[in-house]
Amino acid sequence: PISIDATASFADPRARAALVNLLMDRDPDIIVQAALRLGDRREPEAAGALGKLLLRNEPGIRYAATRALARIGTPEARQILRAHLSSESDDEVQSLIQATIRNSNP
């Protein structure tokens, strides 16, 4: 994912849009990398798109989306995680959500 890393390095709304578009890729590895880069960039505008990844079947994608939302850290991102917590079936993802909620500012 060199191109994903390169795209993420640009501080430009077009780079954010490109990363959000990659969240719809067919390749789970591309989706994970794009989600993580959006989290690294702390892109609050991406919270809704990342939240949709929590509905995916793949725990790795849900974990990456959770990690990204945790890094974004906005009230909207935390609310997305709170709303998803009760339906999460993977223990690691559930633990990360719980830790994020527990460590967030009120």
Descriptive keywords:
mainly alpha; globular; 71% helix; 106 residues
Any overview of this molecule?
The protein is mainly alpha-helical. Helices cover 71% and strands 0% of the residues. The chain has helices spanning 2-8, 13-22, 28-40, 47-53, 59-72, 75-85, 91-103. It is globular, with a radius of gyration of 13 Å.
Summarize the structure.
This protein is mostly helical and 106 residues long. The chain is 71% helix and 0% strand.
Number of helices: 7
Q: In total, how many beta strands?
A: 0
What is the percent of helical residues? Answer: over 70%
Q: Estimate what percentage of residues fall within beta strands.
A: under 5%
Q: Which class best fits the helix and strand makeup? A: mainly alpha
Rough outline: globular
Distance between the termini: 36 Å
Radius of gyration: 13 Å
Oligomer: single chain
Question: Helices and strands, in N-to-C order?
Answer: HHHHHHH
The major beta sheet can be summarized as: none
- Low-pLDDT ranges: none
Overall pLDDT = 90
Reconstruct the topology from this structure.
Layout: H1 2-8, H2 13-22, H3 28-40, H4 47-53, H5 59-72, H6 75-85, H7 91-103
Helix pairs in contact: 2-3, 3-5, 4-5, 5-6, 5-7, 6-7
